[in-house]
Design a protein that fits this description.
Blueprint: H1 6-41, H2 46-82, H3 90-106, H4 109-115, H5 119-144, H6 146-158, H7 164-171, H8 175-191
Helix pairs in contact: 1-2, 1-3, 1-4, 1-6, 2-3, 2-8, 3-6, 5-6
Length: 192
């Protein structure tokens, strides 16, 4: 038998699809619209920064409560949608939902960095995600199974959060403004 058994792959894939669907749908829209919008306003302009922060606020209010609800309610969602046989997907679903929350907050940075002329930073972010995933996947999966695979994805997604600082400096975005943009979504999530 191979390292990734068929059942482990099935459980992980199902949990990943359920946890990431909202994020992947949201991110495709943000990437398609963000770059032209930021370029239209001028990447460093106040209008561009306002549009970027409004995008983050919208994502935080729309996506964070949804994915965090999925993480909290996974023990009820999985049996209701898939049946008891899939109970192994509960843990990976929780982790995938948290990764989805981070992914959604990270995605607007891609078009923002491109519009700021920081394509090299975006390439570096992609390389960093890949290296972290490659380094974490085997040991975490060997130790924790499908939950470990999801943890490796979470680690690779979270690894690029420090790179937000580069975009913040280039666009003159203060940390307080960034936190104010995300705060409503965190408050809504806490109310769930």
């Amino acid at each position: 038998a191979g390292f990734f058994s068929t059942s482990l792959l099935g459980v992980y894939q199902m949990a990943n699809v359920m946890g990431m669907t909202l994020a992947t749908e949201t991110t495709s829209i943000v990437v398609a619209i963000g770059f032209p919008l930021y370029m239209k306003y001028g990447a460093r302009s106040e209008q561009s920064v306002t549009a970027f922060l409004a995008t983050l606020r919208m994502i935080a209010c729309y996506v964070l409560p949804g994915v965090l609800f999925v993480a909290m309610m996974a023990q009820d969602i999985v049996p209701a949608l898939l049946g008891q046989r899939w109970s192994g997907a509960i843990g990976p679903l929780r982790v995938s939902a948290i990764a989805a929350a981070i992914l959604c907050l990270d995605t607007p940075w891609t078009p923002k960095l491109y519009s700021l002329g920081l394509a090299r930073v975006e390439v570096g972010r992609s390389i960093l995600r890949t290296v972290v995933l490659a380094a974490a996947l085997y040991p975490l999966t060997a130790r924790f199974g499908a939950v470990g695979s999801a943890l490796a994805m979470l680690a690779s997604t979270a690894a690029v959060i420090p790179t937000w600082r580069t975009g913040m400096r280039a666009a003159s975005i203060r940390l307080s403004d960034l936190l104010r943009a995300i705060a409503p979504g965190l408050i809504l999530s806490a109310l769930i």
